[in-house]
């Protein structure tokens, strides 16, 4: 008798017609074979064996370099369940359209069967997925990003409890590219793209879109969040999870070298992109990192912005779409001043400076998490780490103060639901436009966002010791257009204040938007930021916030009557508080 997995593999093979089927075991021998396969295909190079041992540079099709949200679909029976912020297709139509493209799509190719575990192998919070793909690059990447092969197959046994994900490169033509999710069936179909976020189905597709649906059904949370631990001089570690839209510095924050290390404050990395959270027997929300690697944005990464990752990526790393120096090393804008002479750009052309950047703006490194010097000793703890704070943030040149604290869970959910950010290169849409991005989940929520807000509100009633909720903005600019806050390792000063607030300390003033630190509440020793700049960083401008309030009101209208009453109530209260300060005598 064949297992449910074997039956599914057979049925997919009948549709896609691969030349051969390879079941991945996750061994080192297999990894070496896959590397050779990639190199022989001609789009992947081995990097300098001395300075970047066991590292590859992969060049993707130039039309296939980022997530394509326009062709990402949530295919629920009822359109309303996908909600106004997702693209929707009826499941039958999606099966027909994509089925047509999958038919015969693997002719002459190998179909790899990749069983993988999301989360620590020994954790009951972990889940199993299986990806079928005709891309060797996907196999090599999943090896870094998840626990894959025999370990997953052994855990699965003959069970049907896995999320199936079917992926084919198809012909890479953007007009025949689709990323379809069937949350009711817990199924993923993706065709026409080899880019990580579209093709590594365990990442955004399963760990966020499908998992967010499962989490609501089962009473847990799947969030687009880093997880870090802030160690205090006493040795106590306070864990925090933070959500920022794509390419807003989650990886850098999670791996930060603290500017207050000499005072005994140190940051430990548990995860850099996704958190799965469940209420533990101790009444705290416990987070695991479903991933085993970091798929980070390369440009802008350097010894100052993220020294830990610069150390981590010196071995066993896959670089995608970076430049290549004549020493056979990767190079990207922001690594140092200027590419060395003879650098080849991400499309394999000699870099001249006038034909675009050396590295594609969304070029990436894929690196095993355990290689980070900052990796937490608890990063694979099967029970996860207890979360004391949620931090939300975005790029806001003007509006939001450096940090503020929500007054309670319901208000915090409202703060998170009203998040917005200026867009980046992580998706193919226009860069630099302000868009609403609740909980940084806009592209990743697998169901109606109004119901997702409802799930957050509901979770608040189920967590005996809920995390406190904060909002940060590292990106505020002065009148001269320059960033006011130095960011990176200095962000630990904000984390320290957050930790103090959790402990019932940390000075703050109440404003219409929440608690903002007093201008002397942050530890600023050794930092050259004037008092005036600090005041500007912490300023809450009622006129700006009144405009913001109106804008969020418009966004919320999209959800009609499905928007939870508690969100409406918080919105109304913020409006009233803003009005009160506007009319208060100076
Ligand atoms: C990512 C993203 O790759 O959010 O993590 O786009
Ligand atoms: Mn992300």
Q: How would you describe this structure in keywords?
A:
binds oxalic acid; 586 residues; 16 helices; binds manganese (II) ion; nine-stranded mixed sheet; Phosphoenolpyruvate Carboxykinase, domain 3; single chain; 29 strands; Phosphoenolpyruvate Carboxykinase, domain 1; 2 domains; alpha/beta
SSE layout and pairing:
Blueprint: H1 4-16, E1 20-23, H2 28-41, E2 44-46, E3 56-58, E4 72-74, H3 79-82, E5 87-88, H4 91-102, E6 110-118, E7 127-133, H5 136-145, E8 147-148, H6 150-156, E9 163-168, E10 178-182, E11 187-191, H7 196-199, H8 202-218, E12 221-223, E13 225-231, E14 237-243, H9 250-254, E15 266-271, E16 275-279, E17 285-288, E18 293-297, H10 307-312, E19 318-320, E20 323-324, E21 330-331, E22 364-368, E23 385-393, E24 403-405, H11 409-417, E25 420-422, E26 434-436, H12 449-462, E27 468-472, H13 492-502, E28 508-511, E29 514-517, H14 531-538, H15 542-557, H16 565-583
Parallel strand pairs: 1-6, 3-19, 4-5, 4-10, 7-9, 9-11, 14-23, 23-27
Antiparallel strand pairs: 2-3, 6-7, 6-8, 10-11, 12-16, 13-14, 13-15, 16-17, 17-23, 18-22, 19-22, 20-21, 24-27, 25-26, 28-29
Helix pairs in contact: 2-5, 11-12, 11-16, 15-16
The structure holds oxalic acid and manganese (II) ion.
């Amino acid at each position: 008798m064949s297992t449910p997995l074997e039956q599914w593999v057979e049925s997919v093979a009948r549709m896609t017609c691969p030349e051969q089927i390879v079941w991945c075991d996750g061994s080192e021998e297999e990894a070496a074979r896959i590397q050779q396969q990639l190199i022989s295909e001609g789009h992947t190079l081995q990097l300098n064996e001395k300075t970047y041992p066991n590292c590859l540079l992969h060049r993707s099709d130039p039309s296939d370099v980022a997530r394509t949200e326009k062709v990402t679909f949530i295919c629920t029976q009822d359109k309303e369940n996908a909600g106004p912020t997702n693209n929707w297709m009826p499941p039958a139509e999606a099966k027909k359209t994509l089925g047509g493209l999958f038919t015969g799509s693997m002719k002459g190719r190998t179909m790899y069967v990749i069983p993988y575990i999301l989360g620590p192998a020994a954790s009951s919070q972990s889940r199993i997925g299986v990806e079928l793909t005709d891309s060797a690059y996907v196999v090599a990447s999943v090896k870094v990003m998840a626990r894959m092969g025999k370990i997953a197959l052994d855990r699965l046994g003959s069970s049907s409890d896995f999320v199936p994900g079917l992926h084919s490169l198809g012909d890479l033509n953007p007009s025949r590219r689709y990323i379809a999710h069937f949350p009711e069936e817990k199924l993923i179909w993706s065709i026409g793209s080899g880019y990580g976020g579209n093709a590594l189905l365990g990442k955004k597709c399963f760990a966020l879109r499908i998992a967010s649906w499962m989490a609501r059904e089962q009473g847990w949370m799947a969030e687009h969040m880093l997880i870090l631990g802030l160690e205090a001089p006493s040795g106590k570690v306070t864990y925090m999870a933070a959500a920022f839209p794509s390419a807003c510095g989650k990886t850098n924050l999670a791996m930060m070298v603290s500017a207050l290390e000499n005072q005994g404050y140190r940051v430990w990395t548990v995860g850099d992109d996704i958190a799965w959270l469940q209420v533990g027997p101790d009444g705290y929300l416990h987070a695991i990192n479903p991933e085993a690697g970091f798929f980070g944005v390369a440009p802008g990464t350097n010894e100052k912005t993220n020294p830990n990752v610069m150390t981590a990526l010196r071995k066993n790393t896959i670089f995608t779409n970076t430049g290549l120096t004549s020493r056979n090393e990767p190079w990207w804008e922001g690594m140092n001043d200027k590419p060395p002479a003879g650098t080849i750009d991400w499309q394999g052309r000699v870099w001249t400076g006038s034909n675009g950047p050396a590295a594609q703006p969304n070029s990436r490194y894929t690196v095993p998490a355990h290689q980070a010097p900052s990796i937490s000793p608890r990063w694979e703890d099967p029970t996860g780490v207890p979360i004391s704070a949620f931090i939300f943030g975005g790029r806001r040149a003007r509006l939001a103060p450096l940090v503020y604290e929500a007054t309670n869970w319901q208000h915090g959910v409202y703060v998170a639901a009203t998040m917005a950010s200026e867009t980046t290169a992580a998706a193919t849409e226009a860069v630099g436009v302000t868009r609403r991005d609740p909980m940084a989940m806009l592209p990743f929520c697998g169901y109606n966002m109004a119901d997702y807000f409802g799930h957050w509100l509901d979770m608040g009633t189920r967590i005996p010791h809920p995390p406190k909720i904060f909002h940060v903005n590292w990106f505020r600019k002065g009148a001269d257009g320059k960033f006011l806050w130095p960011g990176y390792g200095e962000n630990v000063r904000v984390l320290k204040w957050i930790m103090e607030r959790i402990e019932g300390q940390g000075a703050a003033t109440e404003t219409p938007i929440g608690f903002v630190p007093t201008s002397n509440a942050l530890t600023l020793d050794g930092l050259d930021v004037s008092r005036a700049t600090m005041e500007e960083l912490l300023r809450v401008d009622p006129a700006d916030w009144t405009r913001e309030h109106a804008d969020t009101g418009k966004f919320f209208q999209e959800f009609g009557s499905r928007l939870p009453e508690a969100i409406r109530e918080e919105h109304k209260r913020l409006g009233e508080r803003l009005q009160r300060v506007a009319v208060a005598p100076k």
